[in-house]
Protein backbone atom coordinates (compact mmCIF):
# COMPACT_ATOMS: atom_id res chain seq x y z
CA UNK A 1 0.00 0.00 0.00
CA UNK A 2 1.32 3.41 -1.01
CA UNK A 3 0.10 6.81 0.12
CA UNK A 4 1.48 9.91 -1.55
CA UNK A 5 1.49 13.36 0.09
CA UNK A 6 2.85 16.78 -0.80
CA UNK A 7 6.11 17.54 0.99
CA UNK A 8 4.79 20.73 2.57
CA UNK A 9 7.17 23.04 4.42
CA UNK A 10 4.77 24.08 7.17
CA UNK A 11 7.35 26.20 8.98
CA UNK A 12 7.92 28.25 5.82
CA UNK A 13 4.19 28.46 5.08
CA UNK A 14 3.44 29.85 8.53
CA UNK A 15 6.28 32.39 8.69
CA UNK A 16 5.44 35.78 10.17
CA UNK A 17 4.68 38.78 7.95
CA UNK A 18 5.43 41.36 10.66
CA UNK A 19 8.60 42.74 9.10
CA UNK A 20 10.63 45.39 10.94
CA UNK A 21 10.02 48.93 12.20
CA UNK A 22 11.75 50.32 9.10
CA UNK A 23 9.93 47.97 6.70
CA UNK A 24 6.64 46.84 8.21
CA UNK A 25 4.97 43.79 6.71
CA UNK A 26 1.88 43.91 4.52
CA UNK A 27 -1.46 42.34 5.45
CA UNK A 28 -0.08 41.20 8.81
CA UNK A 29 -3.52 40.50 10.32
CA UNK A 30 -4.58 38.40 7.33
CA UNK A 31 -1.30 36.46 7.41
CA UNK A 32 -1.72 35.83 11.15
CA UNK A 33 -5.19 34.39 10.49
CA UNK A 34 -3.85 32.20 7.70
CA UNK A 35 -1.03 31.00 9.97
CA UNK A 36 -3.55 30.05 12.67
CA UNK A 37 -5.56 28.08 10.11
CA UNK A 38 -2.47 26.28 8.79
CA UNK A 39 -1.31 25.33 12.27
CA UNK A 40 -4.82 24.35 13.42
CA UNK A 41 -5.09 21.92 10.50
CA UNK A 42 -2.41 19.80 12.22
CA UNK A 43 -0.95 18.50 8.95
CA UNK A 44 2.25 17.34 10.67
CA UNK A 45 0.30 15.40 13.28
CA UNK A 46 -1.80 13.77 10.56
CA UNK A 47 1.36 12.83 8.67
CA UNK A 48 2.90 11.29 11.81
CA UNK A 49 -0.23 9.25 12.56
CA UNK A 50 -0.46 8.11 8.96
CA UNK A 51 3.23 7.08 8.97
CA UNK A 52 2.73 5.13 12.18
CA UNK A 53 -0.30 3.25 10.86
CA UNK A 54 1.36 2.54 7.51
CA UNK A 55 4.47 1.19 9.24
CA UNK A 56 2.23 -1.11 11.29
CA UNK A 57 0.44 -2.33 8.14
CA UNK A 58 3.60 -2.60 6.02
CA UNK A 59 2.65 0.30 3.76
CA UNK A 60 4.73 3.16 2.44
CA UNK A 61 4.35 6.92 2.75
CA UNK A 62 5.93 8.94 -0.04
CA UNK A 63 6.34 12.72 0.04
CA UNK A 64 6.52 14.57 -3.28
CA UNK A 65 7.85 18.02 -4.08
CA UNK A 66 4.65 19.98 -4.83
CA UNK A 67 6.27 22.59 -7.10
CA UNK A 68 4.50 23.04 -10.44
CA UNK A 69 1.87 20.33 -9.74
CA UNK A 70 -0.92 22.90 -9.98
CA UNK A 71 0.18 24.33 -13.35
CA UNK A 72 1.20 21.05 -15.07
CA UNK A 73 -1.37 19.23 -17.19
CA UNK A 74 -2.01 15.71 -15.88
CA UNK A 75 -2.88 14.56 -19.42
CA UNK A 76 -0.09 15.90 -21.65
CA UNK A 77 2.51 17.15 -19.13
CA UNK A 78 2.52 20.73 -20.40
CA UNK A 79 3.67 23.17 -17.70
CA UNK A 80 2.40 26.73 -18.08
CA UNK A 81 1.17 29.28 -15.53
CA UNK A 82 -1.60 30.10 -17.99
CA UNK A 83 -3.05 26.60 -17.52
CA UNK A 84 -4.39 27.70 -14.15
CA UNK A 85 -7.33 29.98 -14.99
CA UNK A 86 -8.09 30.74 -11.35
CA UNK A 87 -8.03 29.07 -7.94
CA UNK A 88 -10.54 26.39 -8.98
CA UNK A 89 -10.25 25.92 -12.76
CA UNK A 90 -7.53 24.19 -14.75
CA UNK A 91 -7.52 24.40 -18.54
CA UNK A 92 -4.47 23.17 -20.47
CA UNK A 93 -3.43 25.61 -23.18
CA UNK A 94 -1.71 22.78 -25.12
CA UNK A 95 -4.22 19.92 -25.22
CA UNK A 96 -7.44 21.52 -23.92
CA UNK A 97 -7.76 19.22 -20.90
CA UNK A 98 -10.12 20.79 -18.34
CA UNK A 99 -10.48 19.77 -14.70
CA UNK A 100 -10.81 21.15 -11.20
CA UNK A 101 -7.38 22.59 -10.38
CA UNK A 102 -7.03 20.58 -7.15
CA UNK A 103 -7.98 17.31 -8.88
CA UNK A 104 -5.43 17.94 -11.63
CA UNK A 105 -2.73 18.69 -9.02
CA UNK A 106 -3.65 15.56 -7.02
CA UNK A 107 -3.28 13.40 -10.14
CA UNK A 108 0.17 14.94 -10.74
CA UNK A 109 1.20 14.32 -7.12
CA UNK A 110 0.08 10.69 -7.29
CA UNK A 111 1.91 10.20 -10.60
CA UNK A 112 5.11 11.71 -9.18
CA UNK A 113 4.87 9.53 -6.07
CA UNK A 114 4.43 6.28 -7.96
CA UNK A 115 7.36 6.69 -10.36
CA UNK A 116 10.98 6.68 -9.26
CA UNK A 117 12.56 10.12 -9.51
CA UNK A 118 14.45 12.73 -7.53
CA UNK A 119 11.17 14.42 -6.57
CA UNK A 120 10.07 11.39 -4.53
CA UNK A 121 11.07 11.37 -0.89
CA UNK A 122 10.23 8.13 0.98
CA UNK A 123 9.81 8.61 4.72
CA UNK A 124 12.29 6.49 6.68
CA UNK A 125 11.01 3.80 9.04
CA UNK A 126 13.08 5.25 11.90
CA UNK A 127 11.38 8.64 11.62
CA UNK A 128 7.96 7.03 11.26
CA UNK A 129 8.32 5.30 14.60
CA UNK A 130 9.59 8.40 16.33
CA UNK A 131 13.05 6.91 16.83
CA UNK A 132 16.36 8.50 16.07
CA UNK A 133 18.57 7.38 13.22
CA UNK A 134 21.97 6.39 14.48
CA UNK A 135 25.09 5.94 12.34
TrEMBL record:
It comes from Rhizobium gallicum. Residues 43-109 form the Cas12f1-like TNB domain. Pfam families: Cas12f1-like_TNB. Residues 123-135 have a biased composition (Basic and acidic residues). GO terms for molecular function: DNA binding. The keyword DNA-binding applies. The lineage of its organism: Bacteria, Pseudomonadati, Pseudomonadota, Alphaproteobacteria, Hyphomicrobiales. Residues 115-135 are annotated as: Disordered. This is IS200/IS605 family insertion sequence transposase domain-containing protein. Keywords: DNA-binding.
